[in-house]
Amino acid sequence: MNDHATQPYQSRIAIYPRTVKGRFRGIKYAILILAYGVFFLLPWLRWTRVAGPHQAVLFDLPERHFYLFDLVVFPQNIFWLAILLVIAALLLFFVTGVAGRVWCGYFCFQTLWTDVYLLIERWIQGERPARMRLREHGWTGERVLKLGLTHALWLAVAFWTGLTFTLYWADAPGLALSFFQLQAPFAAYATTFLLMATTYIFAGLAREQVCTYMCPYARFQSVMFDRDTLIVSYDRSRGEGEGGRRKVTRELKSREARQAAGHGDCIDCGYCVQVCPTGIDIRNGLQVECIHCALCVDACNGIMRNLGWPSGLIRYTSERALAGGRTRFLKLKTVGYGLALTAAVVLLIGSVATRAAFDASVQQTRQPLTVTLSDGSIQNGYAIVVNNTSTQRLTLRVGIQGLAGARLEVQPGAEMILAPEASRTVYVKLRYAAKASDPKRIPFSFRLTPEGRGAPAALLLPTQFYTR
């Protein structure tokens, strides 16, 4: 029986990425340092506020306040989150259409953490040949020691990652102290150890399988590519020639001799395959596993420089350019994505910049909807919720506009005093001597007037008065 018929899937082939130096590897290290610096240090950054916690970034779920430096986000600002998600999607589509999977290769959390785990592995176990030999020689004492130390440091990084994420949701110094004193809330331990487990599994054990099998982006990103999208590509016409790739020999040492023999510039050294974190051969064309990290570009350019030949045998280019054309960046698709992205960014910035010092909502209480009093007047009940979105104390007076002759009763009082970033609900009873000619519903507005020097503008809350 055919062996392939009895195996529902292919067993994993271990990948041992080799170290490489070059421009793109340097860019990846710079992004890695920046990303780790922001993620791990930001919870500890102090930020002085008139009101609220003195932590630069804090997601305070019990109080329902998200603190981002000088910006405080309230639940009623959920619209900002929707715009932010639209911006993220449009940015991904725009960048992918222009430059391929640069998000995957440089900014994805899976890529960043896997890079660190590989650095730890190389530091303890050595370069690619040493790591391969370590696994080929069985379970020796050296292997147990090095693998044990590797996994211990992986778990330490994973724990640090999980704990840091948890520190964004409470005061970092206080939560960290209570965490190690075993006095933190259960949610803190659950979140920390869940993220510790996923980080360890994804970055340490699964690695390229996350990108190949688990990430949906690898599957649908191809629909955003076209002939002008920049991708990491192998120049087959230059590398193969008419006689194909050949290793360097005494007779085929110079570029001129190779061209005369019909061979291309690729010397079949395999360096581009050895540095690939997903283990593919870029010379076989664009593949779903390729994350466009460009490490193969650095590897090939290094070999070309050592040989004294032009670089760029593997490079960022487009299918149109490989075919001899010119890459077009100004296309209807990219212009459309760019305009939509710009509009979304402007909308978000405008919404944040023009947010009022306070907001409010009014809702009519309907138990019962109307009440007829002994003097024949009609009474309606309302609940007004006011949110002070500023860092200053706010005094408001409740009035009405558009319902002449109505009498207002505010509980606990017509004057509202709100502390910075506080919310308050007042209940209003509105009495009106309705006439027989009045409609069933009379539109009017509650007027909230701030008091004091430099007070913001008054706010009108349109609503209706039911006469029957």
TrEMBL record:
<dbReference type="GO" id="GO:0051539">
    <property type="term" value="F:4 iron, 4 sulfur cluster binding"/>
</dbReference>
<keyword id="KW-0408">Iron</keyword>
<keyword id="KW-0479">Metal-binding</keyword>
<feature type="transmembrane region" description="Helical">
    <location>
        <begin position="182"/>
        <end position="203"/>
    </location>
</feature>
<keyword id="KW-0004">4Fe-4S</keyword>
<feature type="domain" description="4Fe-4S ferredoxin-type">
    <location>
        <begin position="257"/>
        <end position="285"/>
    </location>
</feature>
<dbReference type="InterPro" id="IPR014116">
    <property type="entry name" value="Cyt_c_oxidase_cbb3_FixG"/>
</dbReference>
<dbReference type="InterPro" id="IPR051684">
    <property type="entry name" value="Electron_Trans/Redox"/>
</dbReference>
<dbReference type="InterPro" id="IPR032879">
    <property type="entry name" value="FixG_C"/>
</dbReference>
<feature type="transmembrane region" description="Helical">
    <location>
        <begin position="335"/>
        <end position="358"/>
    </location>
</feature>
<keyword id="KW-0812">Transmembrane</keyword>
<dbReference type="InterPro" id="IPR017900">
    <property type="entry name" value="4Fe4S_Fe_S_CS"/>
</dbReference>
<protein>
    <submittedName>
        <fullName>Cytochrome c oxidase accessory protein CcoG</fullName>
    </submittedName>
</protein>
<dbReference type="Pfam" id="PF13746">
    <property type="entry name" value="Fer4_18"/>
</dbReference>
<dbReference type="GO" id="GO:0046872">
    <property type="term" value="F:metal ion binding"/>
</dbReference>
<dbReference type="GO" id="GO:0005886">
    <property type="term" value="C:plasma membrane"/>
</dbReference>
<keyword id="KW-0249">Electron transport</keyword>
<keyword id="KW-0472">Membrane</keyword>
<feature type="transmembrane region" description="Helical">
    <location>
        <begin position="66"/>
        <end position="94"/>
    </location>
</feature>
<keyword id="KW-0813">Transport</keyword>
<keyword id="KW-1133">Transmembrane helix</keyword>
<feature type="transmembrane region" description="Helical">
    <location>
        <begin position="144"/>
        <end position="170"/>
    </location>
</feature>
<dbReference type="InterPro" id="IPR009051">
    <property type="entry name" value="Helical_ferredxn"/>
</dbReference>
<keyword id="KW-0411">Iron-sulfur</keyword>
<dbReference type="InterPro" id="IPR017896">
    <property type="entry name" value="4Fe4S_Fe-S-bd"/>
</dbReference>
<dbReference type="InterPro" id="IPR013783">
    <property type="entry name" value="Ig-like_fold"/>
</dbReference>
<feature type="transmembrane region" description="Helical">
    <location>
        <begin position="26"/>
        <end position="45"/>
    </location>
</feature>
<dbReference type="Pfam" id="PF11614">
    <property type="entry name" value="FixG_C"/>
</dbReference>
